[in-house]
Amino acid sequence: MNKVAVGDKVPDFRFDCTDPKIHSFNSLVGKNIVLYFYPKDNTPGCTKEGKDFTALYQELSSLNTQVLGVSRDSIVCHQKFCEKLGLPFPLITDKNEKLCQYFDVVIKNNFLLRMILGIERATFLIDTHGVIRHIWRKVKVKGHAQEVLNAVKRLNC
């Protein structure tokens, strides 16, 4: 499979989400999408990233932008994570890794001398027509949400 690139149109995947009204990318036509992949609910980096996007959520929303977090955690786990952090945006569960594979975020990690498959922290900015406009890979959490907001502002100019 080829890696996704800026300029690619995202297929209309169907997915399970903590907001049942959001079940596919087509259900968000006309909105920009910040699609951020993260390894696991309730871990320090993922918690910080969720809080950072929460802090900027109102401004992102005012720019016609829907934030969506994605990991392989279950809907129940996601719901608890949303409640615990007060996340104002929904989370997508990708247990079958359909989105993770398409966006090429599955990586091999060496954990206790065993190779395990993990999720690379990555973010994709998708415009109102479903076209990828910016990709961030190997994301460092500090300052990332602000960087994404700045890109959304440039997109809306």
Q: State the end-to-end CA separation.
A: 33 Å
| Helix/strand/pairing category | alpha/beta
DSSP E strands, number: 8
| Main sheet: strand order | 1-4-3-2-7-8
Helix content: 25-40%
Mean pLDDT: 90
Q: Can you summarize the main beta sheet? A: 6 strands, mixed
Q: Mind telling me the C-alpha Rg?
A: 15 Å
Query: Which of globular, elongated, flat, extended, rod-shaped describes the shape?
Result: globular
Q: pLDDT under 50 segments (min length 5)?
A: none
How would you spell out the order of helices and strands?
A: EEHHEHEHEEEEH
What's the quaternary structure here? Answer: single chain
Question: Total number of helical segments?
Answer: 5
Please state roughly what percent of the residues sit in beta strands, choosing from under 5%, 5-15%, 15-25%, 25-35%, 35-45% or over 45%.
25-35%
